[in-house]
Amino acid sequence: MNRKNKFKIVVLLLLATISVSFIISKSKSKPTLFLIGDSTVRNGTLGNGGGGLWGWGSFLNERIDTFKISIQNRAMGGTSSHSYTATGLWDKVLKDIKPGDFVIMQFGHNDNGKSAVSGTGDDTIHVINPRSKKEEIVHSFGWNMRKYILETKAKGATPIICSLVPRNRWKDNRVIRDQTHAIWAKTVADEEGVLFIDLNTIIANHYDQLGQDQVMGKYFTEKDAVHTIKEGAVESSILVAEGLRMLKRNPLKKYMLPY
Asked: Is residue 23 located within the same domain as residue 54?
């Protein structure tokens, strides 16, 4: 065998080794936790606290062992359970989901108005998208959440629903709990048998304990009753982690950092 043929064989063996190593490393890659939702999960284009306001997803990495699981915060400000799909954001997440991954979803703050359908049923409306000028079919909030659940499961991943974080609005010294989207989120989670964190109630209970003045001083600005400053987002991420720990039969627990 001449030197040229020997060189070709060596190159082919090297390429084969690299290919096998790549396949093995890919198959053994650590799982990913995807976060989807609105600006209360990820605020600012890069999730870097636009205008000094932050989403809790920017700090969840401090509660999760990222040596064992990756976190990708794919939430986007201004999105609803409908528009997150209509703008193609969900398709981008869906193509990256692999078996063993997790998806935490939280919507509701932007699921209002004339271009939204209330409830969890199969009702639809036809609307003209103001940007594309094309007609879209809009389903109910619950229908959209069910779509995320079913498509996540179809990829072999675990869906987890969070009810929306509460606004800084009070009545009789108590934070006003959401009586629509938080309830619909739980309804869908119960019907589909998936994990559910009642984040609306968990955070509202925490705010009640602190009192309105302290919550305003620590977590919010006077100009915004929805988005928290950094301290509020950090605290919300802690409460999300506590909610995850309280869930029974939650495969994500093994990736949680100790208190």
From this structure: no
* Same domain for 51 and 16: no
Tokens of 108: 């509701």
Q: What is the DSSP letter of 220?
A: -
Let me know whether 135 and 174 are in one domain. yes
- The pLDDT tens digits of the residues spanning 186-223 come to 999 999 999 999 999 999 999 999 999 999 999 999 99
Q: Do 223 and 118 share a structural domain?
A: yes
The predicted model scores a pTM of 0.87
Range of the domain at 109: 31-255
Q: Which residues pair with 33 in a beta bridge?
A: 71, 102
Do 18 and 116 fall within a single domain?
no
Q: How far apart are CA 76 and CA 110, in angstroms?
A: 11
> Which H or E run contains 28?
none
Q: How far apart are CA 182 and CA 199, in angstroms?
A: 9
What's the structural domain count of the chain? 2
DSSP letter assigned to residue 48: S
Looking at the fold, whether 159 and 214 belong to one and the same domain comes out as yes
Q: Identify each DSSP E strand in the chain by its residue range.
A: 32-37, 70-73, 102-106, 124-128, 135-139, 158-162, 170-171, 174-175, 195-197
DSSP β-ladder status, 70-73 and 32-37: parallel
Q: List, for residues 35-57, the tens digit of each pLDDT value.
A: 999 999 999 877 788 889 999 99
